[in-house]
Amino acid sequence: MKTFSFTGAKKIVFGKGSFAGLAEHLAELKISRPLVVLDGNLAGAGFGGKVADLLEQAKIGHVLFDKATPEPPLELADEGAKLALRKRCDGIVGIGGGSAMDLAKAVSVLAAHRGKAEDYLGLNRVPGPGLPKVMIPTTAGTGSEVTFTAVFIRKKLKKKEGMNSPYLYPELALLDPELTLTLPPHATATTGIDALCHAIESYTSVNASPMSEMISLEAIGLISDNLRTAVHDGGNLDAREAMLLGSLYAGLGLANAGVTAVHSLSYPLGGKYGVSHGLANTIMLPRVMAFNLPGAREKFVDIAETMGENVDDLPLREAAYLAVEAVESLIEDCGVLTTLEELKIPEEDFPELAKAAMTVARPLANNPCKMTLDDMVEIYQECYS
Fold it and tell me: What whole-number distance in Å separates Cα of residue 37 and Cα of residue 142?
């Protein structure tokens, strides 16, 4: 058995209605004036008022920063930190999808250590703990509530980059399935497949451990069993609960085993063209799985079985390929059929995209099969139409 470590959020609270206990959790963390980083769409739907009512009843003041957008620009982190400092906030609450939570994690660091967000991009460049932070997901997707990463768009460079530091782990991850009930079908599908991607990548990562494998495989089962229902019957709370739990497990797997080449290939799509993270991963996942089959055939058989495929009496490679087909069927059943051609991404850009993908080095190092520049161009081509 290999030597391994396992890390994550300091505390995880999961359950229907758990959001109602936010004020008590803030009191435990001695946060008396949080900056609430809120997804802009949620703010537009009146969720900011719900948060305000909850905190005002407990006599906890707060400051609202509701500018979080999908694929947030790095400058938003600087803006949020200035507001937190000006209003003397002593903690951060991030509410929304991965973008809002990533933004909240970055603001926590900047408010504590000053400087500019770009100073902390990369691995282990955060000098110490940020302001105490609570992450509250409203999608079953990124798992950002339990990861040490915050990813942003650098508009001038047309690329995505991230802060990666154990100091970004939140003090509390608060997961309430009821907050995911209003997520529209397409967003449910792409964020759900994003979570599945995290689970499959972390399970097949060369950096996986016995503990991360157990959690990642459980995530694959929860997501593949419940995503169709969550997409087509969004009010089904049991399916939403299972999806949020699966997303949580996938995030823990990601944080400890890392992701693989899917993320390397998807990052340039977000950075250059603004393709959402979940959709970019959805497009790339089946083709990268097919590429990786030779390096992790037994694990892909496990994935196929977990997703309900019958692998009995099949040759190893055929059984492993059923995992690819199972993922393709799930994507199709959820109504996500987008190709790079439909996104109007020109074929002549593929070599440039591949060069950018090669710079996303950490996921590539985790990939079970070595991937070259030519391999990447070929995968983009396979995803074109």
Answer: 17
